[in-house]
Amino acid sequence: MKKPKIYNNLKHHEGLSLMELHHRQIMVVYCSQSDAEIWKSFKQGEEAAFNYIYRKYIPALFNYGYQLCKDKSLVKDCIQTIFMDLRIKREKLPEVSNIKGYLFKIMYRDLMRSIKKSHAYEYESLDNSDSFFPIVISHETRMINEEHANLRKKELEEAMAKLPSRQRKALLLLYREELSYKEIANIMDFKDVKSARKLVYRALSSLRSLFKI
Amino acid sequence: MISTLIIMKYTDYDTEDFLKDEFFIRWILSPDEQTDHFWKKWCENHPEKKQQILMARDFIRSVNYGEEEIISDQLYTDIYEAVVAKDISDPTETKTINWSWLKNIAAVTLVVSCFYLGYSVIKQPNEENRINEELVIRENPSGIKSVLTLSDGTVVHLNSESSLQFPEHFNDSVRSVKLTGEAFFEVAEDKAKPFVISAGGNNITVLGTTFNIKQSENFTIALVTGKVKVEDPTGNKILMKPKEMLIMEEGGKIVKKEFDPLEVIGWKDKYLVFKHNNFEEIKEKIESWYGVKIQGGGQFDHKWSYTGVYYNEPLEKVLEGISITSKFDYIIEGKKVIINNPK
Q1: Which residue has the higher pLDDT, A57 or A123?
Q2: Does domain A132-211 have CATH number 3.30.70.270?
Q3: Where is B209: in which H helix or E strand?
Q4: Same-domain check for residues B121 and B248
Q5: Percent of chain B's residues with pLDDT above 90
Q6: Do B184 and B293 lie in a common domain?
Q7: Which residue, A58, A140, A141, A199, is the most exposed by fewest CB within 10 angstroms?
């Protein structure tokens, strides 16, 4: 089969493929659109919207899966199946206002399912286990300014380690993944937003003594 | 009236309360006009809360995964191919997809650009080193871009209307260069000799191998890979991680956010990128890119903006492309472009 004509026009690209060009253009076009708009485009069959979603959320999704299950190939298979399903069922998918939250929720559900199926892990306590979702206090992300170096890294990390893993998970979703209480409640299968707030509030009150100025 | 209510509420806030507050978290992590306007004003009016705010900010920014797993390029492409291959009927077509761009991105380095150069000497060379430090200045006028290789193997893509000052041979302790305008650096690794770029009063030290900096009205660094340390004129030190863009505004405000690689570093690969640009921005980009002067174009609506990507195209193609959606005529007379609108 003959290559589409557009390839010929791009022959002179040095080290740049059509796919690269394509991906980069996509980022430009969709960066400023709302999640709801991008999702709608995807549902309507716009391939570019799918690529954007893939490119933007795969790294976070993979890491999230890894926090739940250290078997990378299982995480990989799970992501693969999720995205295949999304494409097949795209017309029937619900409206989504926060794509990351939506993907995290499906990821959790599907990963738990495949872990159970694989019988390779003790799945019952999974993310309730105390070792899940470890947190480090990263100094790289903040200004190193002695006058305001209020946070005591070691003390905080020790205190974090003592929190139940669900509380750590909520803190990571809130501060690291920039998800709202509403999304957190959705991802963690809470009935209402209040429960997500409570979880975060409890974690913060355990850390309270470390916030003294 | 609503804002008065909020202000009343926040005056009782302690660090913990700020940490619970979504509106505050949003300001710290992804400031936008709404949050920035409110919180800046609030901070001004409540200097007594400064410590609490700073502590909450530091905490929010420093919560991180203890075992973060970054997806490998291999897995990333494997999954994509598996997913897309499922609905591509012609298997030969998938083979034409070349994934080398992922590796290119991983190898990408640093764009530094600055238009306000505050002169700052990083390190006075020793007497014996001075002989080696014969300084060279390369300067590009508008319309010209160039690629330089420095004595240590570092490759610098120098944009138009930019200049780089560097020693013919680096001394034994530090590799220092000085930049005005914009450049993309692929720094050769040498752990014993840090690579320091002085630009607009900021010093950028390359700790790993790859990063990307830019300054127009603001000073901007976009880090693609590796680690970079930035020191501003007041001595603040900031460490950056890959995929982060740091924007330092003239007033001293510092913002971190994600960036679009094509928009920020596309120029070095001959991509002229317009992303929701207004006429003034387009005019500036075209003038600098092609070394021309644009006249006219005064009739554009304030709301008008243009988005488009051009790869290595002549001026006519770009003007034609923009004019199709934007309804204007243009005449090119040598180094002068005259725009007439509306059509």
Answers
A1: A57
A2: no
A3: none
A4: yes
A5: 6
A6: no
A7: A140
Alpha-carbon span B98 to B90, nearest angstrom: 16
Coil, helix or strand at residue B335 = coil
Residues B307 and B254 grouped into a single domain: no
Q: How far is CA A16 from CA A7, B98, B318, in A?
A: 11, 8, 20
Q: What is the DSSP letter of B165?
A: E
Report the alpha-carbon distance of residue B320 to residue B258 in Å, rounded.
Answer: 32
Residue B77 structure tokens: 């492409």
CA–CA separation, A189 vs A126, rounded Å? 15
H/E stretch holding A101 reads helix A99-118
| A17-118 has CATH 1.10.1740 classification | yes
Separation of alpha carbons A163 and A154, rounded Å: 15
Task: Give residue for tokens 């012609």.
Answer: B90
Give this complex's ipTM: 0.80
Under 8 Å between Cβ of B245 and B144 = no
Indicate the residue type of B152.
D
CB atoms within 10 A of CB A205: 11
Mean pLDDT over A129-146 rounds to 61
Partners of A171 on chain B (C-beta within 8 Å) are: 63
Q: Are residues B129 and B212 in the same domain?
A: yes
Alpha-carbon distances, residue B322 vs A129, A181, B30, B275, B306 (angstroms) = 57, 43, 32, 12, 7
Mean pLDDT score of chain B: 75
pLDDT in tens, B113-132: 433 322 222 333 333 334 44
Taking one residue from A and the other from B, the number of pairs with CB-CB distance under 8 angstroms is 190
pLDDT digits (tens, 9 = 90+) for A175-187: 999 999 999 999 9
**Can you say whether residue B143 is alpha, beta or left, with left for phi > 0 and alpha for psi between -120 and 50 degrees?**
left
Residue in this structure with the two tokens 């070349």, named with its chain if needed: B98
Residue B278 is classified by DSSP as: -
List chain B residues with CB under 8 Å of A3.
93, 96
Residues B231 and B326 in one domain: no
Q: Which DSSP string do the residues of B88-104 spell out, in sequence order?
A: -S-HHHHHT---HHHHH
List pLDDT tens digits, range B170-221.
Answer: 877 888 898 888 888 888 877 778 888 888 777 788 765 555 566 666 777 7
What CA–CA distance (Å, rounded) separates B199 from A169?
40
Which of B33, B35, B49, B67 to substitute to test the interface with A, most A CBs within 10 Å?
Answer: B67
Number of structural domains found in chain B = 3
pLDDT for res B324: 79
Pair B209, B114 in one domain:
yes
Q: Which of B65, B80, B92 sits opposite A54 (nearest CB)?
A: B80
Q: Which residues pair with B245 in a beta bridge?
A: B222, B257
B225, B106 Cβ separation under 8 angstroms: yes
